[in-house]
Amino acid sequence: MQGFAFRHLLGRIAFLGALWVVLSGLEPKALAVGTVAVPAAVWLSLRLLPGPRHLAVWRALRHLPAFLGASLLGGLDVARRALSPRMPLAPGWVEVPVHLPDGGRVALGAELSLMPGTLAAGTRNDRLLIHLLDVNAGFEDAIPREEAAIAAMIDGEPAPREGG
């Protein structure tokens, strides 16, 4: 178990360190700040998502193109709605059942909030509260897919669904 914990720690350091470099670059000042920020992020991630669940970095990287593609399409949709003379909007709230551990719920909420037209605003029992720009756009179908992707990153298996 101790080997697993050490590999787990090294994996998080590598992932968050690489993420820091991608986001901030290789400037010496950015790297200096990263020497404090990355260990703090590792500590926080261990508090929010302790073992034995772990993040499979390769699964997270495999999900990245789909996330970026969905963000691009969502941004185009929001721009189309904003520039349309009719502004086809139907804002509202939905509650979606979520079967992830607390850290996974945080990750799902953060991912959904980065998607144009959606904002995760919290949880109620085992349900994620999401504000949508258009409640008729079918986001409720996409949210369980994102949940399954995050569950696969954490556990290697999709989250269990109701009735299945």
TrEMBL record:
Compartmental location: Cell membrane
Membrane topology category: Multi-pass membrane protein
GO (cellular component) term, any one: plasma membrane
Coiled-coil segments: none
GO molecular function terms attached to this record: monoatomic cation transmembrane transporter activity
Keyword annotations of the record: Cell membrane, Membrane, Transmembrane, Transmembrane helix
Similarity-based family: Belongs to the CPA3 antiporters (TC 2.A.63) subunit E family.
Name the UniProt record assigns to this protein: Sodium:proton antiporter
Organism per entry: Histidinibacterium lentulum
Lineage: Bacteria, Pseudomonadati, Pseudomonadota, Alphaproteobacteria, Rhodobacterales
